[in-house]
Amino acid sequence: EHFKNRSKDDRSGTSCQTVLVKLQTSSVSAVSSRERCPKADDLESLEHLVQSGEETPEPIPTTIKGSIPTWINGSFLRNGPGKFEFGEDKYIHWFDGMAMMHRFHIHDGSVTYSSRFLRSDSYVQNLEKNRIVVSEFGTVASPDPCQSIFARFFSYFQTPQPTDNANVNFVKYKGDYYVSTETNYMRRVDPQSLETKEKVDWSQYIAVNSATAHPHYDREGATYNMGNSYGRNGFFYNIIRVPPPEDKSALEDSADLRGAEVICSIPADEPRKPSYYHSFVMSENYIVFIEQPIKLNLLKFMLYKIQGKSFHNILSWEPQYGTVFHLVHRRTGKKSPVKYRAAPMFTLHQINAYEDNGFLVMDMCCGDDGVVIGEFTLENLRRESGQAMDEFYNSLCRNLPRRYVLPLNVDENTPLDENLITLHDCKVYMTHEELHDDQLLQYGGLEFPQINYAKYNGKPYRYMYACGFGHVFADSLLKMDVHTKELKVWRYPGLYPSEPVFVASPGAAEEDDGVVLSVVVTPRKEKSTFLLILDARTFTELGRAEVPVNIPCGTHGVFNEMG
């Protein structure tokens, strides 16, 4: 971390500048993240982790091993792909699977489990026809075989409707829970029963065509997100703000995004090739959009239905465009005229960001190429053990934690030699610090980072929790001290944990005073899923709640604290 050579009392700008120079000249590895991590040798098949699951709509008890802290009171909600075929039709990509919601309800040391498929329009229509009738990220729906040959031909020229298969995350707006993907549609859900409620179209509230599944929340209760828009004036990345919840005691039980607004529209650096993004950065006063060189070919986007290509076929890794960081003041919506540029990199998830003495410190999980998104086909994930699985894993990018530091007080009048930053037409060229030691490499890098979000998002912090990727799916849980880069690890052969979620203990005084929750699955034994509870400080197991069901590998989740 970039303040490591500073004493607690040394907070001068000069010291920070000196360390920044060091960060920019000596802390970047010339070897790619893939080459730095060990190669796989005889990995086991994960086929059983990407098979369709079955609903458990009514809560069932779990078997407790160890001890579940009695102060935990709430529900661990998880989302992810859970159904991969309808009739004879099978999905191609893992991201295509129908959304399956899971709930581990924890109260007084006991745990119950329930799950439901999201009753999206996509799910319902597919189920009624017993075939895939709605196109997804990696699968194009075939024409109805009952139509005439002319109707089937002309169906290729119809613009496909975006899916509402919200299988990525649980998100919260104005106190209500929604499940979300990356189209313009969300679904409101009941976090207790997992009942599917109404479909919400972002474009009915603001002028966007999509939104991410990774919003940020401020301490006043407002929610921030990003979404695209495109038209005659070009392609824009839009920062969205949804106001805090109002008193809903007199309001109907319905979705409410009233007051949502676009606070800033950022034009694409390459209008004909805008960038794909999965999330964004937010600190106390700033939002940063990272325009990375995973490019969307708009011409192919217009023609992909005719060509019979799915969405993942129109994404390409084009490193010649580099990476651009767009800085926006969160409270005014004003975009900085400075363009912060860096070498090409790929990021899905940010860890944290905070301001310190005129600098914006941003930590995120990064890789050196973005080809990985299209590679998670079900065919690849279901490869046999041994050489076939090894070859697939060894071809994937490894994501590692990096730190970028943006100087906030820089403009066209800044001297060229200040901080050794090269300036030209008000552009800042940056390098990064590797936010890890070599110890992390043996765990295959990390992803799905989490922190003590409620108290430390947008503020200086010390600890993060993440998944290690010694396999295609996570095979370890990691706790990292970002000050010392020391790791604590939970890892057992044949066990594959989900994204770790931190839950603070009541009245916690320390940043890591609480527990970490993760759902662990295994391909080695049927119906052997369990909810794992770790002591966040020591990273040792407190207990587990075993549930006799098969749960497919999922994506993201949240803890819904109960009063």
TrEMBL record:
<dbReference type="Pfam" id="PF03055">
    <property type="entry name" value="RPE65"/>
</dbReference>
<dbReference type="GO" id="GO:0016121">
    <property type="term" value="P:carotene catabolic process"/>
</dbReference>
<feature type="binding site">
    <location>
        <position position="214"/>
    </location>
    <ligand>
        <name>Fe cation</name>
    </ligand>
</feature>
<feature type="binding site">
    <location>
        <position position="278"/>
    </location>
    <ligand>
        <name>Fe cation</name>
    </ligand>
</feature>
<dbReference type="InterPro" id="IPR004294">
    <property type="entry name" value="Carotenoid_Oase"/>
</dbReference>
<feature type="binding site">
    <location>
        <position position="556"/>
    </location>
    <ligand>
        <name>Fe cation</name>
    </ligand>
</feature>
<dbReference type="GO" id="GO:0046872">
    <property type="term" value="F:metal ion binding"/>
</dbReference>
<keyword id="KW-0408">Iron</keyword>
<comment type="similarity">
    <text>Belongs to the carotenoid oxygenase family.</text>
</comment>
<dbReference type="GO" id="GO:0042574">
    <property type="term" value="P:retinal metabolic process"/>
</dbReference>
<keyword id="KW-0479">Metal-binding</keyword>
<dbReference type="GO" id="GO:0010436">
    <property type="term" value="F:carotenoid dioxygenase activity"/>
</dbReference>
<dbReference type="GO" id="GO:0003834">
    <property type="term" value="F:beta-carotene 15,15'-dioxygenase activity"/>
</dbReference>
<protein>
    <submittedName>
        <fullName>Beta-carotene 15, 15-dioxygenase 2, like</fullName>
    </submittedName>
</protein>
<dbReference type="GO" id="GO:0005739">
    <property type="term" value="C:mitochondrion"/>
</dbReference>
<feature type="binding site">
    <location>
        <position position="349"/>
    </location>
    <ligand>
        <name>Fe cation</name>
    </ligand>
</feature>
